[in-house]
């Protein structure tokens, strides 16, 4: 009963291939980082988009180098930025956002370059004005956050290339040519599967559920590590909830797509929610150790087999065959040997979830499915304006500093400000640290590469490779993305604008820009979110509402909504403890009693889940 995932039989009864040790290490690192607001999501790796971005950059880069017309180097940047602007979603959404990037980016590039040619004062006015206007785009456009940031980025970078009208027009036209070429490549010539991100995130949810259950199997009859409070308390619950919310937010982007395409992912989302609730209930039993050990151990073993089979089914797609048959039979057999209690209820919920996964793969009808959370992807104009003004103020400061101290490439500093300031203080803090760290490593790596070889052919080949790798990794981890992004821009700049000190300038400018962005969000209308103590109180309130809904016999939909609210409130309180490197916890004088209350949050959630699954088991007996 106490094996590990890699030692287990697969869904067809044969030995499942052992997972490499680095996979477990990577997911453990992701759980640790998520608690501290640093993202590490390997499931977002997109090789196809990376290959496409490499080709998108290779064409204008080859043309510029072959012709010797380095003034058209902005075509390279335009192609790359367009690939970067391509976000997961249906093709109609991707076409609209990328078309707007080409349409808006071209005049922004011209105006930024031309107006900056009138002097320092003009540059100090133009850059923040562009930033404010671009920040307002998400007020009217759905899911336009990245578009807004990149249009603002184009503007502040263009200000760093002050030219008279004629040359500014060449710069803008070269940007338009490169971005339009990438638009055609993305939407016409090399279209990728628009639903692939949803499959990747669905797989990620089941992988995290498998990790959670595997830890229970490994615990066996021993004490569970969450029986006492520790810094990583309930790490699996957070990991699964984060993955579920990422999936939910992504599915919302596909609202309006054909029902036959969208429905399987709604089923997978609901199946994962049911499995998660069952896993929480069973984990609660492992923590308290009140019932017979063999019951929870047998349930954990059977549930882990089922989750592994569900994950395999997601990977196989409609060709699932009988991959879910054996684990379903095993669940039924184990449940038949158990008394009608918590463990039996968890197995029943798992059976129902496996049925939803089977329906998602086969297209079979099911009784009901919870609808996804649907939002229009817009933000309030007050919030957008506040964000734009903060960014603009930071841009003015860093641009003035760059001019006074004669930075070689001041637009790298202003671009860092725009990219880092994409949220509240907690987000900017982590993004700032990641950008500084990534720029440092990327700059040093680029410097070493330039010392080894400076031939155009070698550097161009490396630039194409870096473009592909950076796009493939852009959503995996921001710091890793910045490492390759920094190397790419240093090498491309060296090719089209040769000069000394590019690598060190990139490090310095990014560091100044990132630090300025962090200071701006800390000093200008700082948004730290609610106090940690209030988040803990909200968590206790929502978890009590969850358990009250279960005990009052509310319907399944009401209980599911209460469960999600309780989970999100618990996560918000736990993450706030570690935000800004723990500074908020110290500033707000969090007491030991408050910290201990976090364990009570999870205990309440576990008790509610356990009560719900006991009710399921009792209901099934009555139905029988």
From TrEMBL:
Keywords tagged on the record: Membrane, Transmembrane, Transmembrane helix
Signal peptide from the UniProt entry: none
InterPro entries xrefs: Memb_transporter_dom
Pfam families noted in UniProt: FUSC_2
Domain Integral membrane bound transporter: 399-519
Membrane topology (UniProt): Multi-pass membrane protein
Membrane-spanning segments: 96-115, 121-139, 146-165, 171-190, 388-405, 441-469, 475-495
UniProt subcellular location: Membrane
Main location: membrane
The keyword Ribosomal protein belongs to this UniProt entry's keyword annotation: no
Protein name: FUSC family protein
């Amino acid at each position: 009963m106490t094996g590990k995932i890699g030692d287990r039989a697969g869904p067809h009864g044969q030995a499942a291939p052992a997972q490499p040790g680095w996979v477990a290490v990577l997911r453990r690192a992701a759980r640790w980082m998520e608690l501290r607001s640093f993202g590490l999501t390997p499931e977002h790796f997109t090789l196809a988009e990376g290959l496409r971005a490499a080709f998108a950059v290779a064409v204008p880069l080859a043309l510029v180098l072959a012709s010797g017309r380095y003034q058209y180097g902005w075509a390279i940047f335009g192609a790359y930025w367009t690939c970067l602007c391509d976000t997961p979603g249906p093709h109609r959404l991707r076409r609209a956002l990328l078309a707007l990037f080409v349409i808006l980016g071209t005049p922004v590039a011209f105006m930024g370059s031309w107006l900056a040619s009138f002097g320092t004062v003009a540059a100090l006015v133009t850059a923040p004005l562009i930033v404010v206007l671009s920040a307002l785009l998400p007020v009217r456009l759905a899911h336009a956050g990245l578009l807004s940031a990149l249009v603002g980025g184009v503007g502040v970078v263009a200000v760093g290339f002050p030219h008279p009208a004629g040359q500014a027009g060449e710069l803008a036209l070269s940007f338009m040519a490169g971005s339009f070429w990438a638009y055609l490549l993305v939407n016409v010539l090399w279209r990728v599967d628009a639903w692939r991100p949803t499959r990747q995130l669905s797989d990620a949810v089941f992988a995290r559920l498998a990790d959670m259950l595997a830890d229970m199997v490994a615990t066996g009859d021993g004490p569970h590590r969450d029986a006492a409070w520790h810094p990583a308390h309930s790490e699996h619950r957070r990991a699964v909830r984060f993955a579920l919310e990422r999936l939910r937010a992504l599915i919302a982007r596909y609202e309006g797509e054909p029902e036959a395409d969208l429905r399987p992912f709604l089923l997978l989302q609901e199946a994962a929610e049911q499995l998660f609730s069952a896993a929480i209930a069973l984990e609660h039993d492992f923590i308290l150790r009140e019932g017979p050990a063999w019951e929870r151990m047998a349930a954990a073993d059977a549930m882990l087999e089922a989750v592994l089979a569900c994950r395999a089914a997601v990977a196989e797609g409609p060709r699932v065959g009988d991959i879910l048959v054996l684990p379903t039979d095993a669940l039924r057999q184990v449940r038949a040997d158990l008394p009608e209690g918590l463990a039996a209820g968890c197995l029943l919920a798992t059976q129902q979830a496996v049925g939803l996964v089977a329906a998602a793969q086969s297209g079979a009808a099911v009784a009901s499915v919870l609808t996804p959370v649907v939002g229009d992807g817009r933000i309030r104009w007050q919030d957008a304006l506040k964000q734009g003004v903060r960014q603009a103020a930071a841009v003015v400061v860093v641009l003035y500093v760059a001019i006074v101290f004669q930075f070689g490439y001041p637009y790298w500093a202003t671009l860092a400000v725009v990219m880092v300031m994409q949220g509240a203080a907690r987000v900017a803090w982590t993004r700032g640290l990641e950008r500084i760290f990534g720029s440092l490593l990327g700059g040093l790596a680029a410097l070493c590469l330039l010392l080894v070889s400076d031939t155009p052919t070698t550097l161009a080949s490396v630039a194409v490779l870096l473009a592909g790798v950076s796009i493939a990794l852009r959503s995996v981890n921001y710091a890793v993305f910045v490492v390759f992004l920094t190397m790419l821009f240093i090498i491309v700049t060296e090719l089209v604008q040769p000069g000394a000190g590019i690598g060190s300038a990139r490090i310095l400018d990014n560091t100044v820009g990132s630090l300025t962005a962090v200071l701006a969000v800390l000093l200008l209308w700082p948004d730290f979110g609610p106090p940690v103590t209030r988040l803990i109180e909200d968590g206790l309130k929502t978890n009590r509402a969850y358990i009250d809904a279960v005990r009052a016999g509310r319907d399944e939909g009401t209980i599911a909504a209460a469960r999600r609210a309780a989970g999100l409130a618990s996560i918000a309180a736990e993450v706030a403890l570690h935000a800004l490197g723990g500074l908020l916890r110290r500033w707000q004088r969090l007491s030991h009693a408050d910290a201990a209350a976090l364990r009570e949050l999870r205990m309440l959630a576990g008790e509610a889940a356990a009560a719900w699954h006991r009710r399921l088991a009792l209901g099934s007996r009555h139905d029988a």
